[in-house]
Automatic annotation (TrEMBL), chain B:
Ranges of biased composition (kind: Acidic residues): 112-121
Name by which UniProt lists this protein: ZNF207 isoform 3
Composition skew (Pro residues), residue ranges: 142-161, 432-452
Gene: ZNF207
Keyword Zinc annotated: yes
C-alpha cells in the first residue's frame, strides 16, 4: 500500500493520534500525542518507539521545547513537560479545561498553550512556570507561532494575533474569512501571514499586515472535496504543515488525502495516495525531507468502524514540495 | 479612473459586461478570461493579439473572443481595459447604469437583506468559490470560473440557472438587455436576492433599463413568456405585477411575466456549489469579507442567523474578563449551534453541532474516565509517588465519584468545569488557595493546582 518512500511506524498509539511533531533539529525523532493518553517518542529511521509517558486523559497536542524536552497537554487539563533523556516528568501547570494546543516560540523562548477554558497561557520553559494567562473570546482551537507573534484561532471563527513581547492587549482581532468553523492555523515561515483551514473543505491564505494593499492579496480556495454520485462530499481540513525550505505547505483532510500547495503561485503541487482514514495531523521535518502523516479517524461520523489509525512516514522529494517556476 | 468624462463609471469589461473597481484589475481579468490562449494558456494583451498568437504559434484560427457575451465577441476590435470601447457601447452602458441606480434606490428601501455574497466580484481576490476542479490547482484570483464562462444571463452563476429558460429567448434579441443583469456581479446579486426576497419590483427593474433604449425588443419578450408561466408561484406574481406594472413600468405586462420566472427557484440554488453553506448564510457570508478589509473589530456580530452559537458567545464574550468558573460552565451547558449545511448536491462530512471534532470526541464516555475532578489531585503516572497510592486506577473511579464533595455531574470536560467553584477559595476549607492560577511547581511532589496538598497525602478516599 505504501511505496518504498513511505512506511508505517511500528508500535503506534492504541487509539487516535492527535498530533505529530518532529524534533526541531533532526528528522530522526518524532513526538506523537494520542487519545490513548500517551505521548510517544519515535526514532523514525529505526522505526521504533523510544519512549512513552502518560497523561490521565487523552492528549490533544504536544510540542518540543528543545530536542530533549517534550511538552504535552490534553483532556486532563494538565500541561506536562517531559525530559526525554532522563525520562523525568514534570507537571508544569493546568488549565481549567482541556488543553487543546501546545506550541513553542523560539524567538521569545516561551511555551504557549491554548485551552477550551478560553485562555492562552504562556510558560517559561526554563523554570518552568506560568508566565501569564490571557483571555480569548472563545475556546481556543488552534495556535501558531509567527516570529514573536502568536496567532490564536478560536471557536466562533475568531482569530487573534498577540505580540508575545507585549501581551497587555490583543494586537489584532480578526474574523476568519471562511464561513465555517476554523480547524487549523499555521503561520507562514516568512511571518507575513498564515494559512487557515475550516471544516468545510476550504483553506484561506491571509496576511498579517492590515494595510489594504496587503489585505487585497488574501485569497481562499476549496480543497479536500470529493464528488461521489453527484453529491459533493466536503471534508474538514484538519492539518496544515509548512515545508521549512520551500515555503510550500501540506494540508490533510478528513477525506484521507494530503495535498501540497504552493501559495505564491497558487497551485497544487502534489497529492499523495489516499490514506486509510482522516488525516489528523501533519508535520514536516525541519530539513524538509520527511513528512509525518497521522492517519486517524476523527469521529466525523460518530463512533463507527474505521480503518486502523497509523502514522506514515514519507520521504518527500523536491518534485513534490518545491514550487515550479512561476507562470505569468 | 483618472479620465474625465470618457469613463465616468467604474471600469467594466466590454466583452462580458462585468464591473471592476480598478482598471488594473479589469485588465488582469481581460487577460485571464478573454485574451488567454486556450491551447497554451498564454495571456495576450488584446483580442487581435490573441488571434495572431494562435495563428502564428498554433496555426489555429479563432473567430470569437473567449468568454464573451454574444454581440461582444469581435476578435478584431482592439480593446485594452477601457480603451477602444466603441462610443455607442459606452453610451449604452452609461444609460444602463443610470437606470440601474434609479433601480437600486428604489430597491434600497425594499431590500435590506444580504447585499453581500461570497461570490464577491472580480475586484476581490479573496476567495474563489469556484464550482469546479477541486482537485486541480486552485485558480488564481482573477479567474472566476464560476462566472465568466457563461455569457450573458446564463452566466449569472448559481442563482440564475432558473432564469435561463425564460431568458434565452430574450437574449438574442437584446444583448444589451442582459447587461442590465450581469454587469458587476454585485448589482446582479442584489437583484437576485431580491428576487428571492420579495420582489416584484426588482425584476421589473431588471427589465427596465433596456426598456427605453430598446423598444423594438419588447415584442421579442412574449416568446419568452410561456416558459416561465407554468412555474409555480408565477401566476400570483404575474397578477400582482400586472397590477403594479403599469404603475412602475408603463410597459405591457409582458416583461413582468418573464421576470418572475426565476424567482421561486432562485432561492434555493442561489449558490449551489459556491459553498452550499452560502445558500444558508447569505447574510453573514459577505460580511466575512467586508469587515475584514475594513474593520475587523466590528465583525463579531455578522454571523447572526446561521450561527446562533457565535452570537451568544460574542455576547457573553464581552463580559469575559479572565477565565473563571462561570463562563466555561455557561458555554458548556448551552447547546452548541448546529451547522447549517448544504444543499442536495453536497454534504459536509462533520457532525451537525458546531463544536470542534475533538470536543465532540471528548464527550464520549470512554474519554471521560479518570479525568480530574474538581479538587482532585492531578493524577500523575506512577513516578508521581504518593499520588499513585491515592488514585486507584480506573476501577476506582466510580468510587471517587461518590466521594468528592462537589460532585458535579459528568460534564463535557469530565466535570471539571462544573467543579470549578469547587476549588475556588472556600471550597477547600483547609486550603483555601487563592489564585486559581497554577502556582509554579517542579513536579515531583504532588502539588495539586488547588493546593490540596495534605489531602493528597492523606488518602484517596477524599475523591
Amino acid at each position: 500500500m505504501t511505496g518504498s518512500n513511505e512506511f508505517k511506524l511500528n508500535q503506534p498509539p492504541e487509539d487516535g493520534i492527535s498530533s505529530v511533531k518532529f524534533s526541531p533539529n533532526t528528522s530522526q525523532f518524532l513526538l506523537v500525542s494520542s487519545w490513548d493518553t500517551s505521548v510517544r517518542l519515535y526514532d523514525v529511521p529505526a522505526n521504533s518507539m523510544r519512549l512513552k509517558y502518560q497523561h490521565t486523559g487523552a492528549v490533544l497536542d504536544c510540542a518540543f521545547y528543545d530536542p530533549t524536552h517534550a511538552w504535552s497537554g490534553g483532556l486532563d487539563h494538565q500541561l506536562k513537560m517531559h525530559d526525554l533523556n532522563t525520562d523525568q516528568e514534570n507537571l508544569v501547570g493546568t488549565h481549567d479545561a482541556p488543553i487543546r494546543c501546545v506550541e513553542y516560540c523560539p524567538e521569545v523562548n516561551v511555551m504557549a498553550t491554548g485551552s477550551w477554558d478560553q485562555t492562552v497561557k504562556l510558560w517559561d520553559p526554563r523554570t518552568p512556570c506560568n508566565a501569564g494567562t490571557f483571555s480569548q473570546p472563545e475556546k481556543v482551537y488552534t495556535l501558531s507561532v509567527s516570529g514573536d507573534r502568536l496567532i490564536v484561532g478560536t471557536a466562533g471563527r475568531r482569530v487573534l494575533v498577540w505580540d508575545l513581547r507585549n501581551m497587555g492587549y490583543v494586537q489584532q482581532r480578526r474574523e476568519s474569512s471562511l464561513k465555517y468553523q476554523t480547524r487549523c492555523i499555521r503561520a507562514f515561515l516568512n511571518k507575513q501571514g498564515y494559512v487557515l483551514s475550516s471544516i468545510e473543505g476550504r483553506v484561506a491564505v491571509e496576511y498579517l499586515d492590515p494595510s489594504p494593499e496587503v489585505q487585497k492579496k488574501k485569497y481562499a480556495f476549496k480543497c479536500h472535496r470529493l464528488k461521489e454520485n453527484n453529491i459533493e462530499q466536503i471534508y474538514p481540513v484538519n492539518a496544515i504543515s509548512f515545508h521549512n525550505i520551500h515555503n510550500t505547505f501540506a494540508t490533510g483532510g478528513s477525506d484521507g488525502f494530503v495535498n501540497i500547495w504552493d501559495p505564491f503561485n497558487k497551485k497544487r503541487l502534489c497529492q499523495f495516495h489516499r490514506y486509510p482514514t482522516s488525516i489528523a495531523s501533519l508535520a514536516f521535518s525541519n530539513d524538509g525531507t520527511t513528512l509525518a502523516i497521522a492517519s486517524s479517524y476523527m469521529y466525523e461520523m460518530d463512533d463507527t468502524e474505521h480503518p486502523e489509525d497509523g502514522i506514515f512516514i514519507r520521504q518527500v522529494t523536491d518534485a513534490e514540495t518545491k514550487p515550479k517556476s512561476p507562470c505569468t | 479612473m483618472g479620465r474625465k468624462k470618457k469613463k465616468q463609471l467604474k471600469p467594466w469589461c466590454w466583452y462580458c459586461n462585468r464591473d471592476f473597481d480598478d482598471e488594473k484589475i479589469l485588465i488582469q481579468h481581460q487577460k485571464a478570461k478573454h485574451f488567454k490562449c486556450h491551447i497554451c494558456h498564454k495571456k495576450l494583451y488584446t483580442g487581435p493579439g490573441l488571434a495572431i498568437h494562435c495563428m502564428q504559434v498554433h496555426k489555429e484560427t479563432i473567430d470569437a473572443v473567449p468568454n464573451a457575451i454574444p454581440g461582444r465577441t469581435d476578435i478584431e476590435l482592439e480593446i485594452y481595459g477601457m480603451e477602444g470601447i466603441p462610443e455607442k457601447d459606452m453610451d449604452e452602458r452609461r444609460r444602463l447604469l443610470e437606470q440601474k441606480t434609479q433601480e437600486s434606490q428604489k430597491k434600497k428601501q425594499q431590500d435590506d437583506s444580504d447585499e453581500y455574497d461570497d461570490d464577491d466580484s472580480a475586484a476581490s481576490t479573496s476567495f474563489q468559490p469556484q464550482p469546479v476542479q477541486p482537485q486541480q490547482g486552485y485558480i488564481p484570483p482573477m479567474a472566476q470560473p464560476g462566472l465568466p464562462p457563461v455569457p450573458g444571463a446564463p452566466g449569472m452563476p448559481p442563482g440564475i440557472p432558473p432564469l435561463m429558460p425564460g431568458v434565452p429567448p430574450l437574449m438574442p434579441g437584446m444583448p444589451p438587455v442582459m447587461p442590465g443583469m450581469p454587469p458587476g456581479l454585485h448589482h446582479q446579486r442584489k437583484y437576485t436576492q431580491s428576487f428571492c426576497g420579495e420582489n416584484i419590483m426588482m425584476p421589473m427593474g431588471g427589465m427596465m433599463p433596456p426598456g427605453p433604449g430598446i423598444p423594438p425588443l419588447m415584442p421579442g419578450m412574449p416568446p419568452g413568456m410561456p416558459p416561465p408561466v407554468p412555474r409555480p408561484g408565477i401566476p400570483p406574481m404575474t397578477q400582482a405585477q400586472a397590477v403594479s406594472a403599469p404603475g412602475i413600468l408603463n410597459r405591457p405586462p409582458a416583461p413582468t411575466a418573464t421576470v418572475p420566472a426565476p424567482q421561486p427557484p432562485v432561492t434555493k440554488p442561489l449558490f449551489p456549489s459556491a459553498g452550499q453553506a452560502q445558500a444558508a448564510v447569505q447574510g453573514p457570508v459577505g460580511t466575512d469579507f467586508k469587515p475584514l478589509n475594513s474593520t475587523p473589530a466590528t465583525s463579531t456580530e455578522p454571523p447572526k442567523p446561521t450561527f446562533p452559537a457565535y452570537t451568544q458567545s460574542t455576547a457573553s464574550t464581552t463580559s469575559t474578563t479572565n477565565s473563571t468558573a462561570a463562563k466555561p460552565a455557561a458555554s458548556i451547558t448551552s447547546k452548541p449551534a448546529t451547522l447549517t449545511t448544504t444543499s442536495a448536491t453536497s454534504k459536509l462530512i462533520h457532525p451537525d453541532e458546531d463544536i470542534s471534532l475533538e470536543e465532540r470526541r471528548a464527550q464520549l464516555p470512554k474519554y471521560q474516565r479518570n479525568l480530574p475532578r474538581p479538587g482532585q489531585a492531578p493524577i500523575g503516572n506512577p513516578p508521581v509517588g504518593p499520588i499513585g497510592g491515592m488514585m486507584p486506577p480506573q476501577p476506582g473511579i466510580p468510587q471517587q465519584q461518590g466521594m468528592r464533595p462537589p460532585m458535579p455531574p459528568h460534564g463535557q470536560y469530565g466535570g471539571h468545569h462544573q467543579g470549578m467553584p469547587g476549588y475556588l477559595p472556600g471550597a477547600m476549607p483547609p486550603y483555601g488557595q487563592g489564585p486559581p492560577m497554577v502556582p509554579p511547581y517542579q513536579g515531583g511532589p504532588p502539588r495539586p493546582p488547588m493546593g490540596m496538598r495534605p489531602p493528597v497525602m492523606s488518602q484517596g478516599g477524599r475523591y
